[in-house]
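[09:14] KT: can someone run the structure on this one? pasting the chain below
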Amino acid sequence: MSQEQQAVARARKAFETGRSKSVEYRINQLKNLQRLFSERQKEIAAAIKKDLNKTEVGAQFYETLGLEGEISLFIKNLKEWAAPRHVKKNLLTMSDTVYIHPEPLGVVLVIGAWNYPWAVTIRPLIGAIAAGNAAVVKPSEVCVHTSKVMEDLLPIYIDKELYPVVTGGVPETQELLRQKFDHIFYTGNSTVGKVIMEAAAKHLTPVTLELGGKSPCYIDKNCEISIACRRITWGKYSNCGQTCIAPDYILCEPSIQNRVIEEVKKCIKEFYTDNPKTCPDYGRIINQRHFKRVMAMLEDSNIAVGGENDESDCYIAPTVLRDVKPEAKVMQEEIFGPLLPILPVSGLDEAIKLINKGEKPLALYVFSPDNKVIERMRDETSSGGFLANDCLVHYSVSALPFGGVGNSGIGCYHGKFSFDRLSHLRGCLVKKLKMEGVNDMRYPPHTLKKLGWARFFILNTVDVGWVGRMALLAALVMVAAVVIQNYLL
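[09:31] RB: done, C-alpha cells below
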C-alpha cells in the first residue's frame, strides 16, 4: 500500500470513529490551528522567504492574517452554522418538524497552490475541519520549503490521523487522485483543474475548483486616474504578479494611455524604489520554468516601463506594456507574473465586447465615478467576483463568496460559504403517526376533489411565530375534520 493510500485509509478510519462530528471537537481543532499561527510565525515566514522572497511582515499580511481572522470567525459562529436550520413549510406539513441538518461529507482532499501556499491551502482546510470532515492535505511541491514546514507543523497542532499531510510532486498527486474521496478542493490553473475533474468523475466525487484566468481592468477616462493606478499597481505587482485575482490587463481609451503608464511608473517607484530588485517588499518568480514562461510573453509587445530581468535570481521587474493587441502572446493565457499589458479601446462598449470574447475571469475590475458605467460593466459581463474602484480586497471579506465561474472555477468558499460547501445540507422531515385523515387526499383513487384540497394545502406556505403556529394548527385540525367528514359523506 502506497503512502498516499495509507494516508487516505487512516483518515477514513479516523472519520469513522465519529470524533470529528462533535462541534466541540471541531472548535478545539480550530483553536489548535490558531495557536500554530501565533507560535510558529517565524518558521512559516522563513520558509516563504526562501520560496517567494516575501518578508516576515509580508508573509503575515498576505498569508496568515486572513487565516487568523477566518479561524476566529468559525470559532465564533460554528455552533450556529452547524445547528439544524428550520425552513418554511406548506400547510400539508404544518404540524411536522421540517429542517436542514448540516452533516460532514466524509474525507476531503485539499490540493493547495504555490503562490500563497498557506492562505489557499489552509483556508479550505478550515472549512473542512469546521464541517466535521477528515481532510488529506496536499501542499504544492513547487514551494519546497513551505511544503516541508507544513508537513512538520500541522501534525503537531491538529489531529494527524484526521488531517494527514501528503507531500510530493505529480506522481504523489496522481496516486491521491486514484483514491476515493467525498470531495476534492483544488486551487490552481484550469489545465490541472480539468485533470482533477476527470479523476473525480470516476468516483462521482464533487469538486471545488478555484482556478484563475485573465482578470480585466477597465479604467474610465473620467475617473481619478492617479488613485486608480495606485490601487492597480498594488494589486498587480503584489507577490510579483503571482496572484490569481491580480489585474491581468488594462483596458482604456488611447487618450489616457500615456497618463496611465506614467502613473503606474510613479507608483512602482513609490512602492518598490528605483531598483525593485533590491527592495525587500518585491518578490520573485517562483522558479526558472515560470520565469521563462513569463519572459516568452514579451516577444511581440512594446515595453513602456520595466523589462529588466535576471534568470539566475528569477527576477522580473514590474513591467508595463503599451498598445497591446488582443492577438499578442501576453493575451493568450493568464500572465501570473509582473507584466501589465494595456489594450487601447474606444470606450466602454468595446471593452465589454472584448471581455466577453474571452473565458469568464475570476475577477473583473472597473474604475469609474459613474454608477451607470459600473452597473453596465457588472450587468453585461460575467466573472467570479466584481469590484469597482479597487483590486483584490473582496478576498478579505468572509461574508462574500469567493470563487470562479465557467473556466475560472466551480463552487465558492470563505466563511459560511466554506462550511456549506464542505457539508451535506440534509433535508429532514419528522412527522407524527397522527392526523392520517389529512393524508387521504394523496391516496388513490385520485379525484378532482382530492386534487383541489391538495392544491390548497401544498401551494400555501407559512412562516409564522409560535402563536401563529398554534392558531394554524388549530385551523388545520378543523380543516382536516371537514375533509374527513366530506369523504365519509
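[09:33] KT: thanks! The chain is about 45% helix and 15% strand.
[09:34] RB: yep, looked fine to me
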